[in-house]
Amino acid sequence: MHFVDRVRVHVEAGKGGDGAVAFRREAHVARGGPSGGDGGDGGDVVLVGDEGLSTLLDLRYRKHLRAEHGRPGGSKDRHGRSGEDLLVRVPLGTVAICEEELDAEADDARRPVPWVIGEVLRHGERLVIARGGRGGRGNIHFRGPTRQAPDEAEPGTPGEVRLVRLELKVLADVGLLGFPNVGKSTLLSAVSRARPKVADYPFTTLRPHLGVVRLDDERTMVLADVPGLIEGASEGRGLGHDFLRHLERTKVLLHVLAFEDDPRRTPLRDFEVIERELERHGGFAGRPRVVAVNKADVWTAEERAQVDELRRALPHDVPVFEISAATHTGLSALLDALHHRLSQVRAADEHRNGT
After folding, report:
1. How far apart are CA 253 and CA 256, in angstroms?
2. 8 A C-beta contact, residue 304 and residue 320
3. Where are the alpha helices (DSSP H) in the chain?
4. Residue 281: pLDDT above 70?
5. Residue 101 scores a pLDDT above 90
6. What is the Cα–Cα distance from 96 to 101, expressed in whole angstroms?
7. What is the pLDDT of residue 201?
8. Which DSSP string corresponds to 216-227?
9. pTM of the full structure
10. Res 206: pLDDT
11. Residues 6+ apart with CB under 8 A from 66
12. How far is CA 150 from CA 74, 78, 135, in A?
């Protein structure tokens, strides 16, 4: 399955039905009054969270999303039927952004664009991205002391028409980041049941992968492996640029480092490069960091000395773990530390929210 995490769609809510102009015509009523009913409301365009979906692929080929129009009112004070809402199922973590208001009369037409309409985070959660128009009032509402037979009714109002961008940001507790081919996918496979593609060449991971780590009956967390970053990723180089946003919802960042054949690259330099890319992207300041230096089972003495140098150079609140995803060396201690940091963040969030 292709992974699609960004689409643009033309969204059109239903128009409200027109109110009716009608009069009572019963034989036993000498002077029939107005009886025109109201038009039905137009249908909304609604996103619905579906935990069974993992991509926006289905929407790549649906460039127009239209809800049903409301039906006009009828005689004998009959209300028109409201238009059916258009329900669009999307994966959890979908954000809806209005890029353009195409209806100049809409209430939001004066709002600067782009602006965030909302996001879908839970299964079954609904988010209205375009509201249907209101049904017009029938002439029964316009009768008065001096107007016994009004011949006017209201037209229905138009529904909202927008150009909407949908973006998927994966929902995970811990985000794995690092250069290509440092072993992030192997690490995710080693600690969870996730089975991302693993091979010995750069950019093996072409989409985010999620893995659930179960430490015991009470401690679980979700890890996200995103495509490897390279220097300049925040400016569009490599494959990691579009995937940086998948780390925005994570609560803890795990740097995965490793030694490569290039003598100019060291774990410390790679850490600094990735941190610069995060800073340029924005939104990650203050997020807890943990470092794992991978492939410890094949280090030389010189490489071990470089790991010690890395540990001395980093702040005290950024722990460094020596691991081997291939042999599972050091993984238990790493996972315990990640869950501890995650628990601290969750506790702080609960305190901040008063829960």
Report:
1. 10
2. no
3. 57-60, 184-191, 267-281, 301-313, 331-353
4. yes
5. no
6. 14
7. 39
8. SSS-EEEEEE-P
9. 0.69
10. 52
11. 12, 14, 45, 86
12. 15, 17, 18
* Residue pLDDT, tens place only, 154-213: 999 999 999 999 998 877 889 998 888 888 888 988 998 765 444 343 433 456 778 888
- How far is residue 132's CA from residue 22's CA, in Å, rounded to a whole number? 25
Q: What is d(CA 177, CA 196) in angstroms, rounded to the nearest whole number?
A: 15
- How far apart CA 77 and CA 84 sit, in angstroms, is 21
Query: Looking up tokens 């999307």, which residue turns up?
Result: 90
Amino acid, single-letter form, for residue 177:
L
One-letter amino acid at 342 equals L
* Residue (of 150, 160, 29, 155) closest to 102 by Cα position: 160
Torsion, CA 89, CA 91, CA 92, CA 96, rounded to 10:
-70
pLDDT digits (tens, 9 = 90+) for 232-250: 544 444 444 566 777 888 8
* Length of the chain, in residues: 355
Q: In what order do the strands lie in the sheet with 161-168?
A: 64-66, 6-12, 161-168, 94-101, 115-120
The residue assigned the tokens 């107007």 is 147
Label residue 285 by pLDDT band (50, 70, 90).
confident
Indicate if the pLDDT at residue 230 is higher than 60.
no
**Mean local confidence (pLDDT), 349-354:** 77
Residue ranges of domains in the chain, CATH in brackets = 1-168 (2.70.210.12), 174-353 (3.40.50.300)
Amino acid found at 180: P
Distance CA 170, CA 348 (A): 22
Q: Are strands 174-177 and 220-225 parallel, antiparallel or unpaired?
A: parallel
